[in-house]
Amino acid sequence: MQNSHKLLIFIPTYNESQNVRVIYERIKALALNTDILFLDDASPDGTGQIIDEIIKSDGRVYVIHRTGKLGIGSAHQDGIRWAYDRGYTTLVTMDCDFSHSPEYIHDFIRLSKEADIIVGSRYMDKGSLDQWNWLRKFLTHTAHFLTHNLLKMPYDATGAFRLYNLTRIPQGVFGLVQSVGYSFFFESLYILFLNNFSIKELSIRLPARTYGNSKMTFQGAVRSTMHLVRIYVRTWTARKSFYFISPLQKTDNVFRGEPRPYTAQGANSPAQVQKEWDIYWNKDRKSENVVYDMIAVFYRVFIIRGILDHFTRRHFTRGSKVLHAGCGGGQVDDGVVRWVQLSAIDISHKALEIYRKSNPMVRDVVHGDIFNLPYPAQTFHGIYNLGVMEHFTEQEIKKILQDFHRVLKPGGKMVILVPPECGLSVIFLKGVHYILNDVLKKGVQLHPAEISRPRNKAHAKAMYEHFGLKMVEYYFGLKDAFTYAVIVLEKPADPS
Predict the structure, then answer these.
(1) Could you identify which of 115, 120, 157, 419 might form a hypothetical disulfide with 147, taking C-beta atoms 3.0 to 4.6 angstroms apart as the criterion?
(2) Hey, is 38 helix, strand or coil?
(3) How far apart are CA 394 and CA 386, in angstroms?
(4) What is the β-pairing status of strands 7-13 and 34-40?
(5) Sequence-distant (≥ 6) Cβ neighbours of residue 128 within 8 angstroms
(6) DSSP letter at 150?
(7) Which domains does the chain have, with CATH numbers?
(8) Are 322 and 382 in contact (CB under 8 A)?
(9) Which string of DSSP letters, residue by residue, matches 343-411?
(10) How far apart (Å, rounded) are the C-alpha atoms in residues 439 and 367?
(11) Regarding beta strands 408-418 and 485-490, do their DSSP bridges make them parallel or antiparallel, or are they unpaired?
């Protein structure tokens, strides 16, 4: 639905019955050509009912009623999505407790011609927080210190009082934000900052909270701090994952192929299998998973990348056509992309989005599964994957190899990196799972099940030498700190 009114003011609420009518009246007194959208998370004090009464007398006021407290970040995501869907060009977001004075909105609009995002700053004026108590000042200044020093942003990144120019910011940029809580504010601004959208600050003064209490809890502060540390680590190890690239499109060489289910995941439909891997790659996970993700990123970037580059350059000719089958997020592919003409395929849309951000030079990115590769016979000089085959049964591995054999040119090679049963990372994760599940009773699975790890070279040869494929190299050693076994298979050359 397109809306003739270009400006929308968005205000999330929870237990704001004393404030909501007053803030509505103060906004109306500004005589702006604007619509107002409230979002209420089923406030038990009747805030939602008051908003419904306002709507009866004002056709330019709207409300989203949600079933409960789903997080301030998810509230802003819903409000932003609502604004895009209805064709608004400018969005102002603010709180309902009068810590954000509506009278500043005129200044936000005036400055909107100069930047893509206008941020209300509490730090441009040293006296802006004079009326706050010491605890709120401490928490606010600590958050500003951390975002300023870890993320290197010179802005007030933790506040909700902002203006977004929706005509200059693609909606998909906000889709990169993972947080549903208070960390949404610094994460969203950081992503906008890294993607080179222009940001300008407006000095604001914050009065003491007029009614009610702060909704930030100690647990919320801890979660936000952990999320900030995680963003810092991702910046260090996978900075490109924050970059926005336009969504995958159905073209001749992108987003093609119909994925089929594989029995290692049970009798699931293709849609269910894809959903499970999309959830995995979304990384919106519990604290123990966050620690695992950080360790996994460290392994990929500082250990696995080197061994992958070594073996792909050893067995693939420079400039040859190579397929990364089951590419995942592709955090270690940057060296391979520069060496060969690389195509990538995965069953997860989310993984492919991450892959394209990490590897913008990739030849093509394809949605499909490795049982049913959407390529003609003898398309590639080489195929590789890492951390994929161990998730399948030995019978399924044969089916995968059969399709690999079909699309591989005669004389072509496959480089497969798979964690062996005696790998140090396998032993380490077994210990972690024992502590989490047998000792702490957490019931946690940090990664998809690995059901076909090779026990030794002979076992690997028995699993992978099929359809005339010959194992020409097997490596397990110091190059990657005994993490992966590297299995190199060669397709027989054409006798002619």
Answers:
(1) 157
(2) strand
(3) 16
(4) parallel
(5) 122, 203, 204, 205, 206
(6) H
(7) 7-241 (3.90.550.10), 246-490 (3.40.50.150)
(8) yes
(9) EEEES-HHHHHHHHHH-TT-SEEEE--TTS--S-TT-EEEEEEES-GGGS-HHHHHHHHHHHHHHEEEE
(10) 40
(11) antiparallel
Residue 138 — pLDDT band, cuts 50, 70, 90?
low
* 405 and 469 Cβ atoms separated by less than 8 Å: yes
Beta-strand relationship, 364-367 and 485-490: unpaired
Residue 255 pLDDT level (bands cut at 50, 70, 90): very low
Q: What is the pLDDT of residues 326-369, one digit of tens each?
A: 998 888 898 999 899 999 999 888 888 888 878 878 888 888 88
The pair of structure tokens assigned to 458 is 């002979």
For the CA atoms of 332, 458, 428, 435, what is the dihedral angle to 10 degrees? Answer: 130
Give 275-283 contacts, CB < 8 A, sequence gap 24+: 277/346, 277/347, 277/348, 277/350, 277/351, 278/348, 278/349, 278/350, 278/351, 280/348, 280/448, 281/328, 281/329, 281/348, 281/350, 281/351, 281/354, 282/178, 282/350, 283/178
Name the token pair of 39: 């979002």
- Given a cut of 60, whether residue 276 has pLDDT beyond it is yes
CA angle (456, 457, 460) in 5-degree steps: 90
**What are the tokens at 325?**
């089958």
For the whole model, what pTM was predicted? 0.59
Q: What does residue 490 show for φ and ψ, rounded to 5 degrees? A: -125, 135
Q: Chain-wide mean pLDDT for the chain? A: 84
Closest CA to 413 of 487, 315, 479: 315
3-state secondary structure of 471: strand
User: How sure is the predictor about 425, in pLDDT bands with cuts at 50, 70 and 90?
Assistant: confident
In terms of Cβ atoms closer than 10 Å to its own Cβ (0-12, 13-18, 19+), residue 28 is: middle
Q: What angle do CA 31, 37, 39 make, to 5 degrees?
A: 145
